[in-house]
Amino acid sequence: MQRKLNELGYDAGSADGLMGTKTRSAIVAFQRDSGLSSDGRASVDLLAKLNSAATSTATSNRSRPNRSESSFPNVALPAPSALPSQSTQSSSPTRDAENFRTCISGDYPSLCKHNLLTPSEATQVAAAERRANFQTCISGDYPSLCKHHLLTSSEATQVAAAERRANFQTCISGDYPSLCKHNLLTTNEAAQVAAAERRANFQTCISGDYPSLCKHSLLNAEEAARVAEAERRARSRL
């Protein structure tokens, strides 16, 4: 899935099979561009859509848009001769209906040519971009995609709470301590997460096959004895 995302122009990082922040962000970007629910979750259906998108791209001999202005399929660029001079753009925006349609969704501010908007349009687009940003932020799952500076005080409070809840859900499995933002946990949550991480660590250790992945410092005396025996059995099988 990471390889397909990268091939389509969505930076998912290295194809290591791990669901990290970059992979989730790439999935969200693909889902939004494809008109899908932006839940950031990997699934069989998502992989099928990625394969379909890759096939369509290869057939048409065109690269998947990389969210840049020049490659977005719905933005028609004017011919060079029709481009207004720099002084005209800065002093007197011209009405560009197609550009306004791209901008007013609020979903693609990097593709919007803000300098072509009239003052009235610019006000509408700014409001649309703030609303779209809030919808991205309020799930709490993708803080790196959230433009926190566009949030009102009330929205920022809601988003902070959502990010803490989403972080706790990531942490409580105990399987991904490196993805857990421990500083966002309450005292009670931190205690629950610490216990979950110890349980997950013990499950890794008890097979005896991966002593380098086992955090022996998190084991209690009884667990340490059982793990030591498991590691001895694993070595004897070599």
Question: Shape, please?
Answer: elongated
Give the % helix.
40-55%
Nearest-angstrom radius of gyration?
24 Å
User: In this structure, how is the largest beta sheet organized?
Assistant: none
Distinct helical segment count: 9
Class derived from helix and strand content: mainly alpha
Low-confidence region ranges: 61-73, 80-91
Share of β-strand residues: under 5%
Count of extended strands: 0
> What is the total domain count?
3
Rounded average pLDDT = 83
The run of helices and strands is HHHHHHHHH
How far the N terminus sits from the C terminus, by CA atoms, comes to 34 Å
In short:
With 238 residues, the chain is mostly helical.
Describe the structure.
With 238 residues, the protein is an all-alpha fold. It has 3 domains: 2-67, Muramoyl-pentapeptide Carboxypeptidase, domain 1 (Orthogonal Bundle), CATH 1.10.101; 86-166, no CATH class; 172-237, no CATH class. The protein is 53% helix and 0% strand. The protein is built from 9 helices and no strands. The longest helix is centred in the C-terminal third of the chain and has 20 residues, at 153-172. The radius of gyration is 24 Å and the shape is elongated. It starts with a helix and ends with a helix.
